[in-house]
Amino acid sequence: MPVPSLRFSFRRIAALFVLALIGAAVWFFLIRDDDSGGGSVEPETNEEPERAAREPVSDDPVVRRMSVEEQIKQVLMFGFEGTAPSAPGVAELAESDVGAVVVRSENWTGADAGKKLVAALSSSDGIPPLIATSQEGGEFRALPDLPPEARALDIAREGEPNAVTEWANAASEALVGAGFHLNLFPVADVASLDSPLAGRAFSDDPDQVASLTEGALEGCEDAGLACAPLHFPGLGSASQDTAQGPATVVTDLATLNARDLVPFRAVSRDAPAMVISLGLYPDFDAVVPGALTEGVATGLLRAEVGFRGVAISDDLGSPAVTGTYPVPEAAIRALAAGIDLVQVGSPEDADGVAKAIKTAVEDGTLDPERLAQAAERVIELKREVGLIDN
């Protein structure tokens, strides 16, 4: 048997040595650099989180096409100045593409002029806004020449099972005929006659209020109007009206569950929207209004009660808020807490709100996913009322 030459063995050893050097070089420049985050792969690794922060992911095809600025517009509900389509405030708001516009008593001069006003507000080139108002009944109406003439308390005293449905239906049909999509109604608070909400509420009996609130929402639905019961989780025992200043609800969580939350639980699956209170609830936070508190606007409303519709803040320009927070800061806090549509009634208060929210998204104060979620809920409500095709 022939013996291999030493020359052949040395060549084989040299070849193996070269291959080992090549393998070491590959490891050093590729695998080692990938593990340490350096080298040519570093830009891709750092770029992806930044891209995700700039472009929030949404399952809704409409929201997914929106920029952050466009999403911000959808979560705003603004009031305005003026009574005629030609008023500067009306034209400006119509072109702003906000999510919702609230028509107040100072904007309404009558049904004929009001219909033209609403039509002008709806003439957006983008996604039309929800046109909203607060038409409760009696003296608690933003539009005094439209029904209902009876207050909630009056209709409850009639004791007729179908009376509240007919009452709400008549009001809703009139609003739809005038071009409205949303009514901040009915008051679902459990309130006695010495409450700041006396006259606006049905009763001080939780079960009766729950039954009447369900009947009122049935009347809204039959007319094709979205209605938003208020003021979750209950303002019946508040120390004062939130329109006057900070209002403490001296009610513990057990009492809220047994009394104030009963009507809201009853309609949580059917109500397309709810208005969240600006009262102070010590069991959650003694100094921050409910709509700005995550424990109320998310924990209680979503996790406990199971509500899936649009959460609307009460007017953030109210003294219950402005004594502590500038309105732009309150809007950011409300969105972060779980509010989907921030309501600001006065144009003066609305100044700078959108810019402040954009800054909050950019600096991480407001999670962009929370903003996208809020916009999704508003867009879905617009589908339900026919503003956007399915």
Q: If you had to describe this structure to a student in words, what would you say it looks like?
A:
It is a single chain. With 390 residues, the protein is of the alpha/beta class. The protein has 2 domains: 6-47; 65-384, Glycoside hydrolase, family 3, N-terminal domain (TIM Barrel), CATH 3.20.20. It has helices at residues 6-36, 42-54, 61-64, 68-74, 88-94, 111-121, 152-158, 163-177, 206-223, 253-266, 294-304, 319-322, 327-337, 347-350, 353-362, 368-384; strands at residues 76-78, 100-102, 130-133, 135-137, 140-141, 182-183, 226-227, 230-232, 273-276, 310-313, 342-344. The strands form 3 sheets. A 6-stranded parallel β-sheet has the order 7-6-3-2-1-11. A 3-stranded parallel β-sheet has the order 8-9-10. Strand 1, helix 5 (88-94) and strand 2 form a beta-alpha-beta unit. The longest helix has 31 residues, at 6-36.
